[in-house]
Design goal:
Layout (H helix, E strand, L loop, with lengths): L22 H29 L3 E5 L5 E4 L1 H6 L14 H10 L8 H13 L4 E6 L5 E8 L5 E7 L1 H15 L9 H15 L4 E10 L1 H8 L1 H18 L5 E6 L2 E9 L2 H16 L2 E3 L2 E3 L2 E9 L6 H18 L4 E3 L2 H5 L6
Parallel strand pairs: 11-12
Antiparallel strand pairs: 1-2, 1-5, 3-4, 4-5, 6-8, 6-11, 7-8, 9-10
Helix pairs in contact: 3-4, 7-8, 8-9
Length: 342
């Protein structure tokens, strides 16, 4: 009792130190921290998925879509209706693509069945597919432990276009667009290889007559336009299966495949000489040039590319010496008549 007669109340102290909250509070706080960390990881994952430079999707063990970013829906033209009843199955997606013509002609259900059979094999895959709109997609699928798989789609259209441009530039003459020496050598090698299996082929070596004066009088721009027109005419006289190439300067060549007689090569040479000799009109200038052609036939005039080139060049040399603006077949007797080198 206090001195003033009132009853003193004892202060109740907490049953635990102030700096040590009860175990339940500590557990709640730890759980909150863990949940926030989990939410942060989910936000990070969502950011990664949505900012992935392509399409990305996840299918569960039952082959039902559980994740698909906006970019994939855009790339593959997925309509909202595809998701109207909830996440679609892989079979639903295949059927939509088949009906849209994504897999080309054929029965829709056949396309679906083939692709579902492959998906059920649960194997990694990587391939490219060109969509009907011309887009080239690089598609990769990775199976996941416990079933399901992750698929990514990358638009590689521009990369493939650049690759094709580089490959074309490496094998074609930049002025005329014709195959260059590199591609010509490859085509000639292929044609000679087929000769070993019973075919015949001809090599026509072409040199333009009176081309240098065109450059000297009218300038190189006119000369370049003339070469492009010559290339155009040579393309028109050959068959689709033949190869016409620019070897450099005013020299061209044609690999004529699958001939049945030497007269086939003579007929082609006659057509191209006539075509090249027709007058040209370039930048208001009337220009007349000609072409001289040397011909070598495999297997009679050579059994390898180097020998054929050498003999066609020799025939061209003799033709230019005797009668420009015409053609000549290689004749081994003429070569034998040459004086021996000292």
């Amino acid at each position: 009792m206090a001195s003033n007669g009132s009853v003193a109340r004892k202060a109740r102290l907490p049953s635990h130190p102030l700096d040590h909250p009860p175990a339940s509070d500590r557990a709640d706080r730890a759980r909150d921290i863990e949940l926030e960390a989990l939410r942060e990881r989910v936000r990070l994952l969502e950011a990664v998925v949505e900012n992935f430079p392509g399409g990305i999707s996840l299918f569960d063990k039952d082959l039902r879509l559980t994740l698909c970013n906006a970019e994939q829906r855009r790339m593959l033209d997925y309509p909202d209706a595809l998701f109207a009843g909830g996440p679609p199955s892989l079979e639903d997606i295949f059927r939509f693509k088949a009906r849209s013509g994504e897999y080309g002609p054929g029965n829709v259900e056949d396309h679906v069945r083939v692709r579902m059979d492959l998906a059920r094999e649960h194997r990694a895959h990587a391939y490219e597919r060109t969509r009907p709109n011309g887009t080239v997609l690089e598609i990769r699928g990775v199976p996941l432990d416990g079933g399901g798989f992750l698929t990514t789609y990358l638009d590689v259209t521009e990369q493939r276009r650049v690759h094709q441009m580089v490959a074309h530039a490496a094998h074609h003459d930049p002025l005329t667009g014709l195959p260059n020496r590199l591609l010509f050598a490859d085509r000639l090698g292929q044609a000679v290889a087929r000769v070993g299996r019973g075919e015949m082929m001809a090599l026509l070596y072409i040199d333009l007559d009176r081309y240098k004066p065109v450059n000297d009088v009218f300038g190189h721009p006119v000369g370049d336009e003339l070469l492009k027109e010559v290339a155009h005419r040579l393309r028109r006289v050959k068959r689709e299966s033949d190869t016409v190439a620019r070897l450099g300067g005013d020299e061209f060549a044609i690999v004529q495949t699958g001939i049945r007689a030497a007269s086939d090569a003579s007929a082609l040479a006659r057509r191209l000489v006539h075509s090249v000799a027709a007058p040209y009109s370039i930048d208001g200038h009337a220009i007349v040039i000609g072409a001289t052609v040397g011909i070598a036939i495999a297997p009679f005039h050579g059994k390898d590319p180097e020998e054929l080139l050498r003999n066609a060049d020799f025939a061209l040399y003799r033709c230019k010496a005797d009668s420009r603006g015409s053609f000549r077949m290689f004749d081994v007797r003429e070569e034998a008549a040459l004086p021996a080198a000292s």
